[in-house]
Design a protein that fits this description.
mainly beta, Lipocalin, five-stranded antiparallel β-sheet, five-stranded mixed β-sheet, about 0% helix, about 35% strand, globular
């Protein structure tokens, strides 16, 4: 592991906080209270970099940090253990202080069809951590509950067949070791919920008391013109203790899903009532009543409170005939719905690979679903917006970073940069941090004045992941390298 020495500081800041899931708590807002973060980073020289370690060759998962451990999904193109060979999905558990490996979850690829589990895509979902448990959606469309300490402290069960799970079918099971994950329970969503994963199973799990709430990731088949399992749910709830499916939506979202249900849900209290927000793969935004504690048996139905169509003129039926139509198509949402002060922010538009070239950012009344304002973005948008005070930041695939007034939608500024954005902006310490698919990483001033780039540097590989701020450090994942930036 290569380290870079930084000048000593006269004093060290007080301890910062953890970032145990993607986005802030239930609201999903990409804003962090962390301070003493770097204002400038130069990747080639190592200025501002504390350490870096190799990941796989593709990393779409954003890092999260909890209790001194960092969790990030990647693939197995840089094996940490020689017994795990070939293309695999991998969740790394690292020491957040220096990046050394604590343990890893290694998951064989699905082999029925490459569109189930796209080659080299690895585990693309970000982890969610609570106490001594890590929750993750694997590349096989499974929800896994893991012990944060791995197998180094023994096998806690009730799941005890880690050797079989880490080994491809048709070969003798591998022997688990102290660097392997300890699976507490695991739920196969294809078998239990009837989903049909497409390309990469992606979700960021939301914890609500005894429940795990997540998008199912169900989508089209390998023709991209058919929904193989039209009865599959788009939004599901599992019992946190056992992984049992306890609730699902009944909105018939799957048949009208244009590509896949990749947008993760958010949860908040609006006007005194708790609401669960979800952007379906059919392009519709929903608010549901949060699920009750798990029942002893059966699968409950989520109760819809309202729905909003952000693109009412888009096709709603026979949606797959518009595949590859860049002028007319349904809309969908890849990022998460973000809640802030009784308002809900969503960004979506035509599908990046298959749909029309138009996108938008909208603000809704979270209580009623009424549209408050809407503004056009570029050809496509993958990001989740970040709301900081009265400012709203977002980036699109045209390489433009925007700053809007969060209440009125008025545009304060935009800046054209040199790369397209799949990552979301992170606002922390008075700055906006974001990386792009050309490998550029930018730090901008988080204010409404004319855009000010404080730092711009090339990280050496494309960036899909959102940066993570924790314990006064900034963790930045490119497709192949994890960097830790900050002061010693």
């Amino acid at each position: 592991m290569k380290r870079f020495l930084l000048p000593l500081l006269l004093s060290l800041p007080a301890a910062g906080g953890d970032q145990p899931q993607w986005g802030a708590a239930w609201s999903r807002n990409m804003v962090s209270p962390e301070t003493s973060l770097p204002a400038k980073i130069d990747f080639p020289s190592g200025s501002g970099i504390l350490w870096k370690i190799p990941l796989g060759s593709e990393t779409h998962s954003s890092p999260v940090v909890s209790d001194g451990r960092l969790f990030i999904g990647t693939n197995n193109e840089h094996p940490r253990d020689p017994k795990h060979a070939g293309d695999r999905g991998v969740l790394l558990a690292l020491d957040a202080a220096d990046g050394h490996l604590l343990w890893q979850l290694v998951v064989p690829k699905r082999d029925e069809d490459p569109y189930f589990d796209w080659p080299k895509s690895g585990i693309s979902s970000p982890a969610t951590v609570e106490g001594n448990r890590v929750y993750i959606v694997t590349n096989r469309g499974e929800v896994a509950c893991l012990d944060t300490l791995g197998l180094a402290n023994g096998n806690d069960g009730p799941f005890t067949d880690e050797g079989r799970h880490m080994t491809p079918a048709g070969t003798d099971p591998l022997s688990p070791g102290p660097l392997d994950a300890d699976i507490i329970w695991i739920t196969d969503l294809s078998a239990t919920a009837g989903i049909w994963s497409h390309d990469a199973a992606h979700s960021s799990i939301l914890i609500d008391g005894p429940n795990l709430i997540l998008n199912s990731g169900t989508g089209v088949d390998n023709t991209h013109r058919r929904i193989r399992t039209p009865d599959a749910p788009a939004l599901i709830v599992l019992d946190k203790a056992t992984g049992r499916l306890v609730a699902r939506d009944r909105e018939n979202i799957a048949p009208d899903t244009f590509h896949s249900n990749w947008s993760a849900p958010s949860l908040a209290t609006s006007n005194g009532t708790r609401r669960l927000f979800f952007c379906g793969g059919n392009g519709i935004v929903y608010a549901f009543a949060p699920p009750a504690p798990p029942a002893t048996d059966g699968i409950a139905s989520l109760s819809k409170l309202w729905q909003h169509d952000p693109d009412p003129d888009a096709p709603k039926k026979d949606v797959h005939v518009y595949n590859q139509n860049r002028k007319e198509s349904p809309s969908n949402v890849f990022g998460m719905p973000v809640f802030d002060r009784d308002r809900l922010y969503i960004a979506g538009g035509g599908d990046l690979w298959w749909g029309k070239t138009s996108s938008w950012l909208q603000c809704l009344d979270a209580t009623s679903g009424k549209l408050l304002w809407s503004t056009a973005l570029g050809r496509h948008v993958m990001s989740t917006p970040a709301i900081s005070g009265d400012l709203c930041f977002i980036a699109d695939t045209d390489g433009i970073i925007y700053c809007f007034h969060a209440v009125t939608g008025r545009e304060f500024w935009r800046i054209q940069t040199k790369g397209d954005y799949w990552a979301s902006p992170l606002v922390a310490d008075g700055r906006v941090y974001i990386g792009n698919r050309k490998g550029g990483f930018l730090i901008l001033a988080a204010d409404r004045a004319a855009p000010r780039i404080l730092s711009e540097s090339h990280a050496g590989a494309p960036i899909s992941a959102t940066a993570c701020a924790a314990q006064h450090r900034l963790y930045i994942a490119t497709m192949s390298t994890l960097f830790c930036a900050g002061s010693p």
